[in-house]
Design a protein that fits this description.
Layout (H helix, E strand, L loop, with lengths): L7 H6 L8 H5 L4 E6 L3 E6 L9 H5 L4 E3 L11 H7 L4 E7 L2 H6 L5 H12 L5 E6 L7 E6 L2 H6 L14 H6 L4 E5 L1 H13 L1 H5 L1 E7 L7 H10 L8 E5 L8 E7 L5 E7 H8 L20 E4 L14 E5 L2 H12 L3 E4 L5 H5 L3 H17 L6 E3 L4 H6 L3 H17 L20
Parallel strand pairs: 3-15, 5-7, 7-8, 8-12
Antiparallel strand pairs: 1-2, 4-13, 4-14, 5-6, 9-10, 10-11, 12-13
Helix pairs in contact: 15-17
Length: 427
């Protein structure tokens, strides 16, 4: 771990926080999660809190990520392991429930696998993220205990989320639960459960979804403004994806006259705007596909999507537990598996090996200019810098990082301020 990262405050002030919320679970009497408008979800120290114990920093994926699986273990595909982490099996598939399939961002695999665990494996629930009822452009952590709750929360949420701050809900249950989150969230869970036997017993299976980064709340508010909605308190619902594949960004709101209106745009257009507001830690992340999870799901982008085509998911088994869980769900009729083909994975994410190589160069430039960096162990990165990036891409990676160091003040400590949403008018 970097010598400059001695505690969680160092992680946040040096802009390495992922916003996962695990520190608030591990040390709840010290930390509580809040929103930093231009950054994302961040831990804030409670008034009069005791000093840190060190367990939060040990669990933090922003400061350190270590791959400690056996790369020579039976079942792990050797030709994929260096670039994609542990992979045992890959399918294209979709939920057998047509409503969940349509509502999901890409086939509803994560949702239906969670439902299978609750209905057939005796799991207590699924810990995941959903839109806040009072401020639907924001997220909240919830433990769903049944099909209806999970079905109501389908669709990706391209906004800050900290599902690990709800791990106490999992620990309180009598039976294990499913955990669904971003790759960094799942990595945090795996780190925390090694320190906490009580948590370890209550994690039934972990499901990660592919992630290209988390835009800040400011990004969402700026997109609403661009679409003629300057007052976020007027928003009644906001969907980033789903209800079709890949789905539309759609906001429903009341105009100044009190009439309900809606605006929508393609996923590609909305993400093209929001991705400019991603937190810095996402730019130096080596894991966009859930390498620490039992199961990872994403879009099968290996082929063009026809208009009106029903959603499909790329489903990756990363552990033997995850592989058997997928097969059991298919046998029970919850999920339909087809196109069983390992090559679907790299073909669906053709740019990620280059991205992995770029991280290697960015880390070197950050160190050179005095910025803090996470400690990564067990990730192959340098080889992809040399093999998967053109000369121009290498140059852009270096120059872009140098520019960001000074524009984002990455070599300085920053003050992280808590933000609260504007109050709604009564009546």
């Amino acid at each position: 771990m970097s010598k400059s990262l001695r505690n969680i405050t160092d992680v946040t002030s040096r802009q390495l926080c992922t916003g996962c919320g695990v520190c608030a679970f591990v040390e709840p009497e010290r930390f509580q999660m809040g929103d930093a408008l231009e950054l994302g979800r961040r831990p804030f120290v409670r008034e009069g809190a005791a000093p840190e114990t060190g367990k939060a920093l040990q669990s933090c994926p922003g400061a350190n990520l270590t791959h400690d699986y056996n790369k020579d273990a039976p079942g792990i595909e050797k030709e994929l392991v260096d670039g994609w982490g542990p992979v045992l099996d890959v399918w294209e598939g979709f939920s057998a429930d047509d409503g969940i399939r349509k509502g999901g961002s890409s086939g509803g695999a994560a949702t239906t696998l969670a439902i299978f665990g609750i209905e057939q494996k005796g799991f207590a629930g699924a810990l995941h993220t959903r839109a806040r009822a009072d401020y639907p452009y924001l997220n909240e952590t919830t433990l769903s205990r049944g099909r209806a709750e999970l079905a109501a929360a389908t669709g990706s949420r391209y906004a800050p989320a900290s599902p690990c701050d709800g791990l106490d809900l999992v620990v309180k249950e009598d039976a294990p639960s499913v955990f669904i989150g971003k790759p960094c969230d799942v990595a945090a869970v795996q780190k925390a459960r090694k320190l906490d036997p009580a948590l370890d017993k209550k994690i039934g299976v972990t499901i990660a979804f592919f992630c290209a980064g988390t835009p800040s709340t400011k990004g969402t508010l700026e997109l609403l403004k661009r679409e003629g909605i300057p007052d976020p308190t007027k928003v009644k619902s906001l969907r980033f994806r789903g209800n079709g594949w890949p789905g539309m960004w759609k906001v429903v709101y009341d105009d100044d006259a009190g009439d309900e209106k809606s605006v929508e745009m393609t996923y590609a257009e909305s993400w093209g705007f929001l991705q400019k507001y991603r937190q810095w830690r996402c730019y130096i992340c080596p894991d966009h596909t859930g390498e620490f999870a039992d199961i990872a799901v994403g879009d099968p982008w290996y082929r063009p999507i026809e208009e009106g085509e029903p959603g499909k998911s790329l489903i990756v088994a990363r552990t033997e537990k995850g592989r058997q869980y997928i097969l059991d769900a298919a046998a029970a009729g919850y999920i339909t598996l087809e196109n069983h083909d390992l090559s679907l994975f790299p073909r669906s994410q053709p740019n990620l090996l280059g991205s992995r190589g770029s991280v290697w160069a960015r880390l070197h430039m950050l160190r050179l200019f005095g910025a803090a960096v996470p400690k990564y162990i067990g990730f192959k990165m340098s080889r992809f810098w040399w093999s998967d990036l053109s000369l121009n891409e290498k140059r852009q990676s270096i120059t872009g990082t140098v520019l960001r160091i000074f524009r984002k003040r990455l070599n300085k400590r920053i003050d992280v301020e808590s933000w609260t949403p504007p109050a709604k008018e009564k009546g």
